[in-house]
Design goal:
The chain is of the alpha/beta class and 283 residues long. It folds into two domains: 130 residues, 3-Layer(aba) Sandwich (Rossmann fold), CATH 3.40.50.10860; 138 residues, Rossmann fold (3-Layer(aba) Sandwich), CATH 3.40.50. The chain is built from nine helices and twelve strands. The strands form two sheets. The protein has a six-stranded mixed sheet with strand order 2-1-3-5-6-4, with helices on both faces. A six-stranded parallel sheet has the order 9-8-7-10-11-12, with helices on both faces. It is globular, with a radius of gyration of 19 Å.
């Protein structure tokens, strides 16, 4: 008997080598007895991105995650996007529906779920370092979840202003730009500080240039980096007594939603937590 064809999913981004998402998804597929597989694809330029997206249908992919730096650039290559992508201006995964490539964004939804396990977002005063494809989604979702004010600290002022305006128009929540000046000083009264840059990612482990004396011990500190789980940024925050939220928890929350969208199966969180711990060599 010929075995059924393996169902293909994956991720497009650059770089992708250190991301544990493929090992996590493959372990969950195996747990649920699915003949599915997840492939990471390192796509280094926009020309190759267009070729890769155009190939998804003829290659028979069932879904594709989109990561840095292609969450904005991928949108013109799609057949349609959902309301979240329209509001946020970035897509972090695709579904293939009746031959059409549809963009979705749940970056921020995963972040909100991870953060609210540790601290409420209602009334939070948020400082976000970076405002790229993931950062803009997180900024909008944090505003929708009840944040009272957002400050975006970016090296690219035009990008920061555009995301601040998007937050204001999508939610009505005040948002402003603070130009990146190293080391970054956090405004007084900040209750949530998030690193949405790639500083701290393995293998370089670059430190975030921050004036830590400006961060109050009661401020919750969040990092989007998934490898390592405990980044230098979070390690310093924990040493100062700040509550922390790591990027692996965010990855689990958004990956569960993507898995359900692709497969129609509602997964158990413990299955994803175990899979990602094993992928990171923690189990």
């Amino acid at each position: 008997m010929i075995p059924p064809q393996k169902q293909m999913t994956g991720m497009l981004g650059h770089p992708v080598a250190e991301n544990p998402i493929d090992r996590m998804f493959d372990a969950v597929y195996a747990h649920y007895g699915l003949n599915w597989q997840f492939w990471k694809n390192d796509i280094a330029d926009e020309h190759d991105l267009a070729l890769a997206v155009a190939a998804l249908r003829p290659l028979g992919y069932r879904g594709m995650a989109i990561t840095v730096p292609w969450k904005v650039a991928v949108i013109p290559l799609l057949d349609g996007v959902d309301a979240d992508v329209q509001a946020i201006g970035a897509a972090n995964y695709l579904t293939i529906e009746e031959g059409r490539l549809i963009g979705h964004n749940n970056d921020g939804k995963g972040v909100v779920k991870a953060i609210t396990k540790v601290t409420p977002l209602q009334g939070a005063r948020v400082v976000m370092l970076g405002a790229g494809g993931a950062g803009r989604a997180m900024a909008v979702e944090l505003a929708w979840a009840g944040a009272a004010h957002l400050t975006l600290v970016t090296r690219r002022e035009e990008q920061g202003r555009e995301v601040a305006e998007r937050v204001r128009s999508a939610s009505g929540v005040p948002a402003e730009l603070q130009p990146w000046q190293s080391p970054v000083a956090v405004p007084p009264g900040t209750t949530l500080l998030m690193n949405a840059t790639h500083l701290g990612c393995a293998p370089e482990l670059e430190p975030v240039p921050l004036q830590w004396e400006s961060v109050e011990p009661a401020c919750t500190v969040v990092d989007v980096i998934t490898n390592p789980r405990l980044t230098p940024f979070l390690q310093t925050a924990r040493e100062r007594g700040c509550p922390i939220v790591d990027g692996v928890e965010m990855l689990v929350q958004l990956a569960m939603q993507i898995f359900e969208r692709w497969t129609g199966i509602t997964p158990e969180e413990a299955v994803f937590q175990s899979a990602v711990a094993a992928a990171l060599g923690e189990a």
